[in-house]
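Sat 14:20. Reprocessing the chain from the morning session after the first attempt stalled halfway. Input below, unchanged.
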Amino acid sequence: MTFHHPAFAPYGQLIDALDLGETRPTLEAFNTVACARNVTQASGLPLRFVAAQGHLSARDYEIRILQTGEVPTRADTWHDVMNALVWLRFPTFKAALNAAHGEAIGREADTLRGRRRDALTMLDESGVWVMSRDPALPLLLAEHAWQALFWDRRHAVETTMQFVVVGHALLEKLLTPYPAMTGKCLMLGAQACELDAEPHAVAGLATVDSPHQLAALPVQGVPGWDDANAAAAYYANANIFRPARVKPPAGAAPLPPPTPAPCPDHQTGESPLT
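Finished this time. Tokens:
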């Protein structure tokens, strides 16, 4: 397996240390790194990757990590390997996500997931941290002004913006990238940069109450993330670079809510290692 996509750059040292490009990863290897880095979950319990046994619901999965520090993991699926990789690289952020899930679960009256957990799930699965020293650029992203952002302001994007993929499902897709891949953005502001982004991302979680707050990002549109996007025509594909949803006029019936985020299933449906 190759990890040539630029989105894997923040994980390069871990990929090399785990030899993920050459060997089948093991729970022992993940736990060796977790121990060496003193990785813990939110309450300070040592984080350990354990073999998944049977099916766990999303609620039970999050609660198990909160109560035991154990992350049920199938080392023979790239989905779970990417999840382990993000835990090892950004443990404070992942621990904060897990704690936020637990807090939200405690407030839910039944098993139905609320909007707060919808948003947390989107970040966990498809999250992208967005940092920009130019405050105008994130506004263009939020407005889906793709041509203006990625082509007209291309040099500014290349020199003042940073994108860090932290969603493990999105990282799995980036192993075999395709143009329609979409991330969900957590905007970190002008103060953050890749070297100190994690505390800003943790703080940002407290402000997220709904999926509506997470701007969509066709990640292959980021300059340099797809060789084909060196041509302006790349951004003309409206099936991928979709315009922003038009707001209804005053007094009109509101638009229907978007389809809820799929419930993450950590036990089925992910790509096996081959």
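The first strand starts at residue 48 and ends at 51.
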